[in-house]
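A student in our group prepared the protein record below, which I am reviewing. Here is the record exactly as it was handed to me.
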Amino acid sequence: MAPVLMYSTQVCPYCRMAEKLLGAKGVTTIEKILIDSDPSKREEMMTKTGRRTVPQIYIGQTHVGGFDDLAALDKAGKLDELLSN
């Protein structure tokens, strides 16, 4: 299974929904970077993704985007393939 990295905050409901969806797909480990506890990580996230909101999810080297993007990938039947790479 491809590694999953997620920029997150401790109180983000969309982050929790993303974790739940990924868990349902068999993901047992998510590397979380909490941008609310380390402001330099927010800058890092914005530089890497061009976005300001969380979650920002990477599967392997692929930037998926936020929860809506993740859910759209799943609905399109492409999430399983991305996770298996």
